[in-house]
Design goal:
heterodimer; A: mainly alpha; 2 domains; 71% helix; flat; B: alpha/beta; Rossmann fold; four-stranded antiparallel sheet; 40% helix; 21% strand; globular
Chain lengths: 251, 288
Amino acid sequence: MNLLQYLPGNSILHRLNPVAKLAAAFLLGICAIVSQSVIFTTLLIVLLLGICFACGLGKRALGLTRNLLVLGGMMFILQLFFVRSGDPMLSAGGFTLITQDGLSSAVLLGLRIIATMLPLMLLFAITEMNDLCGALVKRLHVPYRYAFIVTTAFRFVPLFTAEFHDIEDAQKARGVEYDGGLIKKLKLSVPLFVPLLMSSLKKVDSGAMSAQLRGFNLRTVSSGYREYPFTAADIGCILLSVLMIAAAAMI
Amino acid sequence: MIRFQDFSFRYQSGKTEQPAEFALKDISMEIREGEFVGITGTSGAGKSTLTYSISGLIPHHFAGDFYGSVEVNGMDTVEVHPEQLARFVGQVFQDIDSQMVSSVVEDEILFGMENFQIPRDEIKRRLESVLEMLEITPLRRRQISSLSGGQKQKVAIASILALQPDIILLDEPTGELDPESTIMIYEILRRLNREFHKTVIVVEQKIMVLCAYVSRLIVLDKGQVMFDGSSDSITGEIELFKSLGINVPRVVELGHLLKKAGLYDGEIPTELDGAEKMVREVCADAEI
């Protein structure tokens, strides 16, 4: 599954102003960081998943959560064994392995990673990059050049992933066996980065030429065809996110 | 009108490398308004370089040694930036995927028009017009990544046509297309040339297709123009084409062989319809 791929739809989330979506994703991320409560952070994740299911994005959200669980799990293990403060919970040979603070902060960190990343990942699932670029220029007056570069970089990620898989398939067809451990796969993948880099640079150059020949540098703030007005739903979405931060800080 | 005058170009090479060969050498020719020109040649012949020099990417994007001059609609390409030339020249590159700057069909077509600050009403009119002309209205909100090669090619052409350039350059537009889609693209180009009086310049390896559609054929080899004439006149240049490693259409080759064998003395056809007539004539004479 491509985590940065846009999923077309007509849900209320899809229809929100891209700037409001970006702000909400950012604010909810802050909310997850501010929260010191395991229960609140868990409820935040459940709420986010609930909204996704209501908007027909349940499958994608579950997929994202599953991927984030791996990252959260790794952080959980690190935190569990590195936090030394608090009452000992598990000792071996007179050496404390796990403490109470270590366990609670590990659980919180694991959940926090999921709660922070989930809104950002969802932003990509419900926002067309061109709309985000247009809205950043029209509403926040970000210079078009910078907005275009950032959104194009995100748009290129799936293209480069596909290119990488093509190169990998070409290698497989020539007898390279990628089956085996992670280290073996990494070792075999390193030489692929050279052709990937070359073809990526070529693609980027071709894209730049194409943009240049269609007047890229002539664009101004007012020249966008679409307008991105703020509606009550957009303001409500941002306010709700701010309220969530306040609630996280208080609990 | 495009005018090349003693034009030569050599790409910049690395500091430690030997100077590169000239990609184009001593090109002097004119391409007039409303012509449908096909450019062919083997790999490295300078076909793409020729298109870059018309759109102004040479010398503004590709650095190198530039000699002579290239004028497009009276403007020297050295003095005018490609973005200014883009009002007159639209180019579709060989690699369709990498030239797409948007994810959605409509956004891709809007991109150039927004950049050129075309008024909103005019953008709307042109958008609908090109979608209709290329029969891609149902694809309007589709993700470009979900389209077939032929559909992507149409979107790329639409995004250029929306800017209403006088000259349309296409670099191997059918390289990844099946025969049916190839014909479809060339029918569109023929329509643009005949109905909308656009100057169309196509770089193509499929010489059979070129002969069927273009009015003028230019053959490049090692950066030089080796043949410049009507597509019908290739029938007298078979040996030249063979020496350049370019396959002439099979029907032309057949006609040439029949003529050589003394079985046919008419005009050698370049298209299938003419070939059928030729074969019938030969069969009738031989009473087969």
